[in-house]
Please model this.
Amino acid sequence: MPLTIDILTLFPRMLDGFLTESILGKGIEAGHLVVKVHDLRSWATDKHRTADDRPFGGGAGMVLKPEPVFSAIEQLQTPGCRRIYLTPDGVPLSPAIAQELARETHLIFLSGHYEGIDQRIRDTVIDREISIGDYVLTNGTLAAAVVIDALARFIPGVLGEEKSLTHESFTSKLLDFPQYTRPAEFRGMSVPEVLLSGNHAEIEKWRHARQVEKTRQVRPDLLN
Ligand code: ADE
Model:
């Protein structure tokens, strides 16, 4: 059974394009995963379809109300599903987390306002909280998209070539080596000779050296 993902958001149209384009779009079309976007407001019960309100205790911004979120999650959840809230104070997304999520059968992603959501939601109907990095987005919808894009690459069949997963940054804890394609000479800039040599051992050696060099420059923390 393919992985099914429900996304709960106040801004469903932010995901237009994301679900139809590129490798993810092809993966969905091929049935490797199913993604459903839901407008949280459709679970609001008042005539203004209110999903947020001012924080108790004062402060700026709006807080997501418990009622529509509880109703939505209670309607969508299935036994064994994982309910995930996207928030800058969550556990940082890593390749290991992406890979773990790719093995699930049903995920529900909740995107909130950056000011927050009622704590009772987090205490009761959320299993896991994930951050995509130490910066604050206006809401979690793009964060949900990032997590889905990152996990989709671990679903068998989504990436055409299985090989493209093994070689890249973060699986090896080294950043990527530079890539070149035709033409071999462009505006006076030539492709490194070794890549044209056909000598695979030399090419591997060169690529590894470039990876170490790049990682030392940009992410020395990865070199323990
Ligand atoms: N919502 C707002 N900022 C976020 C972040 N950095 N990660 C996940 N969700 C968020």
Remarks:
- The two ends are 40 Å apart (CA to CA).
- The chain has a mean pLDDT of 94.
- The chain is about 30% helix and 20% strand.
